[in-house]
Amino acid sequence: MKVLDLHCPAGHVFEGWFASEDDFQNQLQRQLVQCPVCGDSDVTKRLSAPRINLGAQPPKTPRALQPAPAAAPALAATSPEISAEARAHLQSMQAAWMQWSRKVAQSSEDVGKKFAEEARRIHYGETEERAIRGQTSAQEAMELLEEGIGVLPLALPESASGEGGSGSLQ
After folding, report:
1. What is the distance between the alpha carbons of residues 41 and 33, in angstroms, rounded to a whole number?
2. Across the chain, where does the E strand assignment appear?
3. Which pLDDT does position 85 carry in this prediction?
4. Pairing relation of β-strands 132-134 and 109-112?
5. Residues 87, 101, 165, 149: is their CA dihedral positive or negative?
6. By C-alpha distance, which of 59, 32, 33, 37 is closest to 45?
């Protein structure tokens, strides 16, 4: 099992577990590996320390007697190194975003490309009022707003609902 540190162009950092390097490359090529926050499939590996299980553990050397670690190799500008505290904070924010995204997805109906049509039907009392989400163009969203129909653009990751990604919420 390979555990890889991955990131997307938006800077979201996450782990991926794969049976092998070939499995990772195969899934990456078929765009099956996506950022759990934004859904981007342009994912790259970050530098990460390998874990090697050699069986028995050698006796621990007191920290004061251990040699100083060698300087880490420089990372590319697209992959800035962040402190452990900042990484923990970032992961906490990403987890909160995913939890909120799932809650939105679970408490709304996905009407897909018929979002604008369904939002109008709800607004004008032609169908029951309920929370909906789906896709529409920016132009159509502006027209809905001009009609007094409240919409909110959301970038829900595909993994939030298991059904599909971005949309607006009525």
Report:
1. 6
2. 2-7, 13-18, 44-45, 109-112, 132-134, 152-154, 167-169
3. 82
4. parallel
5. negative
6. 33
In Å, how far are 10, 11, 121, 132 from 42, measured between CA atoms?
10, 11, 37, 29
Beta bridge pairs of residue 153: 168
Q: How far apart, in whole angstroms, are the C-alpha atoms of residue 95 and residue 163?
A: 19
- The stretches in the chain having pLDDT less than 70 are 48-81, 157-170
Q: What are the Cα distances from residue 164, in Å, to 15, 84, 153?
A: 22, 33, 15
Supply the DSSP symbol for 56: S
Which residues are within 8 A (CB) of 144 and not within 5 positions of it... i.e. 6 or more apart?
116, 119, 120, 136, 151
User: Cα–Cα distance between 11 and 1 in angstroms, integer?
Assistant: 25
Q: In what order do the strands lie in the sheet with 13-18?
A: 13-18, 2-7, 44-45
